[in-house]
Specification:
By secondary structure, the protein is of the alpha+beta class. Helices cover 30% and strands 23% of the residues.
């Protein structure tokens, strides 16, 4: 069976799926050429050169006249870290008020269970000892079980105890310029700062 090229698997049961696109080279070209009062119906060779020029010189605004929309499923704590990068993203999220939260929760693999060592500005995330890893997993599992028992007994749709380890789903939209800027974010285990494309026009 051929793999769906619009979907990338994340962690154990998560995914990032391309849900919609309104973007092409012609939209970039027309957004740039409006400065000269011009508009084209078809892409030509000179337009490809223009796009390369805009990218090379980091003239970013023509790349903002389009969007990509994604359907994402991830642990809530991962989504919350992502939602901090708010500028240029539009989000709609699965609601525990209107729907019953699904019966699955995320526990990191042993090698991904880490603890912060050091002080602010000078720290690393080191792998936890096997004993601590076992305790942490047991606590997560027990908290999840107790929270679901509360839901069943009280017939409620959501409770705060479920919100950190369960998975959430959202629809997220972003334009090309800002989407590329996400690829420039530092990706190491200690990376926290947001880096954006320079604000040239």
């Amino acid at each position: 069976m051929e793999q769906d090229r619009t979907e990338i698997k994340v962690l154990d049961n998560g995914f990032v799926r391309l849900d919609g696109v309104h973007a092409d080279d012609l939209s970039v070209v027309n957004s740039a050429r409006v400065s000269f009062g011009k508009h084209k119906q078809e892409l030509e060779t000179e337009d490809t050169k223009l796009i390369n020029f805009l990218m090379r010189e980091q003239h970013g605004t023509p790349f903002e006249h389009n969007f990509f929309r994604f359907h994402v499923k991830a642990p809530i704590f991962v989504a919350r870290e992502w939602f901090r990068h708010r500028i240029g993203w539009s989000y709609n999220e699965y609601s525990g008020r209107y729907s019953v939260i699904n019966n699955e929760y995320y526990t990191p693999a042993d090698e991904d269970m880490r603890t912060q060592v050091g002080k602010p500005g000078n720290y690393t995330f080191e792998q936890m000892e096997e004993w601590d890893t076992g305790i942490a997993k047991a606590v997560l599992k027990r908290a999840y079980y107790n929270a679901h028992r509360i839901l069943r007994n009280n017939k409620r749709k959501s409770t705060h105890a479920l919100r950190r380890t369960t998975r959430t789903q959202n629809s997220a939209k972003r334009n090309t310029r800002l989407l590329v800027s996400n690829g420039m974010l530092p990706m190491g285990p200690h990376a926290r700062n947001l880096q954006l494309i320079p604000n040239k026009r």
